[in-house]
Each structure stands twice: as structure tokens, then as C-alpha cells.
Fold this sequence. Notes:
The protein is of the alpha/beta class. The chain has helices at residues 4-13, 22-34, 91-104, 126-134, 180-199, 241-250, 273-284, 300-307, 331-349; strands at 38-41, 47-51, 58-65, 76-78, 81-83, 111-118, 140-144, 151-156, 158-169, 210-220, 224-235, 256-263, 266-267, 290-294, 311-314, 328-330.
Amino acid sequence: MMDDVAFLEELLRIPSPSGEEDAVARYLVGQMAALGFRVRHDEVGNVVGVLGDPDAGREIMLLGHMDTAPGFIPVRREGNVLYGRGAVDAKGPLAAFVLAAARVAPRLPGVRLVVVGAVEEEAHSRGAHHLTHAIQPPDYVIIGEPSGWQGITLGYKGTLMMNYRLIRPRRHSASEQPPPAETAVAFWNRLTAHAAALNQGQSRRFDTLDPTLRAIHTFGDGLEEGVEMSIGLRLPPGADVAGLQRQMQAWRNGARLTFPYSEPPFQAEKNTPLVRAFLRAIRSEGGQPRFKLKTGTSDMNVVGPAWGCPIVAYGPGDSDLDHTPDEHIEIEELRRGVDVLTRALEELAG
């Protein structure tokens, strides 16, 4: 059996920002093949490995992703801690998927395990979108994202990306008409005030509309001047996306608004055999299970509504370290995650 920490450490040493997953995919294919997976690349670059009877009556998919946020963190071990980009988001959970599936598959007759390392989750979930129309829905899905070894994630907020662009003829600074930058700031202030009004009385961040100003810059050539903003909105369950877009269009004051990407919020059912299997597995390992609802997004937002099967997100690691320059995972946390996954798969197949 492959050493779990060495496997993850090598995954971390291979940079794989979204759209550049080829090298890590080749390594993953080789290691999965050595563990007995029937493994291939699909049409968009996802790594798909299968264990068990191809004609088995039940299929459990463990859907992780190979890509990471940008930025390289030197890979190193310091005591019980392993540092590197992707340690928690989400090569740690993906490594746990591979190791647990290889460990438990021989004990699961009648069950087919499918482990996927998807591409471009950190961009627009290209790999997951491909799966929704390329394969039949599995019976159960586990999404590979950090929940902590005692956590079970049941839902993610949605997302709406918006680009704002305003260009006007250049005017003297003494003109009564505000420059484009001020008009853009007024738009942003109006949006945040609208969100604050909608959020009144909400006690959970999962239920709030959260705008984020991702970038803003001005430009000009002496004859025209302009401003561009990139805004992201985290959407709560029940968000009226079309109504929100209409409202923003009403505030644009001559600007051009485009909406290049969106995903709806999603929350899974709690009372399912999959959830019960994880509850028993975490308790069997001495943990106290807790449910989580995340304010970001994941591939669950894509495959959850498309497939309609029982689904959770699970993986070792602290999600507060996602995308940070201090991203790391405790080695004991990784091993606990593999043990919980092994027990959960056994429980689910029992």
C-alpha cells in the first residue's frame, strides 16, 4: 500500500493551477494504476479511476479536483504538518479518496467505486460540468473538499460574477458630472446597501447575499476615460438571480454590465444513507460529527442538482486555509480522513 503522506507530498510538488493539470494528471494516473484502478483520461482531462465489478449494481463516486488556486507554496514537512498549495484545497481530500478506495474496494462486492480528479474546479468547474452529461448519475456522490475529519458538508452558496465597464468623454476635473470612477463607486455602494437591507434578520452567513469587489481599475487616453470593476456575489438559497440582475441593470447609469458565470446555491438532504454512513464512521473513529454549510462554491453546486442523488462533501483539512499563503494539513488529520472514508464506504455498501 502506498504511503499516504508521500503520495500527497508528491501531488503537492506538481503545480496545477486551473487549466494546467496535465502533469499532475499523469502522476495521478500512474499511481492509481499501480493501486489497481482501471484509469483513464476523459475528453476534458479529468482522471477517472474505477475499482470493483464494472457491472456492479451500485456505484459510489468520489469526485475530487486536481487544480489549485494560483500561487506556489514551497512543499515541506514541519513536524506533523505538511505545507503546499492544494494541501487542503483540494489535493488532500483527493489523496484521501484514492487511498481509501484502494484500501476498501476488495471488501465491497457488488459495489463499483469511481474516483475522479476533475479539472478546473477553481475556475468554472469545467470537469464537473462535463461529467453531468457524459455519464449516468451514480447512486451516491462524495465531493472532495476540506470539511475537517469530523465534518460533513451539506451545502454551498451559489455565485454570480459580474463585470462593470463605463467609458465617457473626458471632462475637466471642475465639471459637475462625476468621473467614471465616482459613478462606479456609487454603483458599488448601492449594491452593498441593497445586500445589507436584504440580509437584515439573517443569523447565518449561509443565508446572506455577499458582494465582493474583486478588482477595480481606471483607464483613459486623454479623450475618453473609463473604469472597470469585477464583482462577485455569493448567493443564498432562494436568491432571485434574475431579479438581482434586473436591479443592477437599473442602477448602471450608462455602464455596460455582463454576467460571465453563475452557479446556483445547493443544499443536500440530511436524512440519507450516505449521511448516516458518515455519522457512524466519524463516531467509530472517536469523533463528534458536525454538519457544515459553506459560503463558497464547489463541484457540488454543479453535480448535485444535475444528478439528484444523495451527496455530501468531505475531506481532511481546515477550509479556513483555502487559497492562503499558509496552506497546510496536519498529517494525523489526513490519516483520520482516510480512516473515516474507509469506514463510511464499508457502511454504505453493507
